Amino acid sequence: SNLQTFPPSQGKISGGSNPLRDADDTFSGPGNGSTDEPHSGGWLHKFTVGAYKPFFDVDTSDVMDRLKESLFPFRGTFTEKTADKPDLYGPFWICTTLIFVAASIGTFVTYVAHKWKKQEWNYDINLVTWSAGVFYGYVTIVPLALYVVLKYFSAPSGLVQLFCLYGYSLFIFIPALCLSVVPVEIFRWAIAGVAGFMSATFVALNLKAHINSAGERSILIIASIFLLQLGLAVVLKLYLFTVTI
């Protein structure tokens, strides 16, 4: 017979291919260790949709477990639990939800404040574009920069795993933004401070064990990561948690 048999496709997404990898094999993702070759080799494969399917191959229980883990920053076990299967699905929807929540809550609070003082109110579309730039930009640029820094100090980390970690670290800001409707400035500063501290601690502790391999510079790197995350909280407080009329 001229009929040929083909091995069945593996994974939750039919037709999915192997995840991308770094030169040092730390661009890890689902299906780690497979020896199958992608249909389009080399760098061209990284520009195909199929190359990124494995990083969105998660179910509801996976995402919920990772969201819960981000709310307990002192455990420092997130990177260990997601090492074999980091995802980009959760970070994408966390950032998208943050944009929607920031725009809607900010609009509602400003509307109420204007009506309370019987002043004219106009919707500010810049709140949406500004929020999108902050959240999408932060969760993309910061992990990329950290990836390069860790490479330089010979403590490379998986790029997708950094995207995953930073994406989930922003989840705490969703309930924080919702609580910002309370019209008390001190309370808003407290909420922004707690959310920023939890988010910064979550990222720093999950990277601490790995960054320790960078030697004497490890403390400086960890401190920079922590302070940068706190800086994000301050920016959000000034532009999203503050209502001016």
Q: Can you give a write-up of this model?
A:
It is a single chain. By secondary structure, this protein is mainly α. The protein contains 8 helices and no strands. The chain has helices at 60-70, 78-82, 89-116, 126-152, 159-169, 173-179, 185-211, 218-239. The longest helix is centred in the middle third of the chain and has 28 residues, at 89-116. The protein is globular.
SS content category: mainly alpha
- Name the quaternary structure: single chain
Q: How many beta strands in the DSSP annotation?
A: 0
Indicate the proportion of strand residues: under 5%
Number of DSSP helical runs:
8
> How many whole angstroms does the radius of gyration measure?
21 Å
Give unreliable regions as ranges.
1-40
Helix content: 55-70%
Average the pLDDT over all residues and give the rounded result.
78
Largest sheet: none
Distance between the termini: 79 Å
- The outline comes out as globular
Order of helices and strands: HHHHHHHH
Pfam family, one: Yip1
Protein name: Protein YIP
Main location: Golgi
Keywords: Membrane, Transmembrane, Transmembrane helix
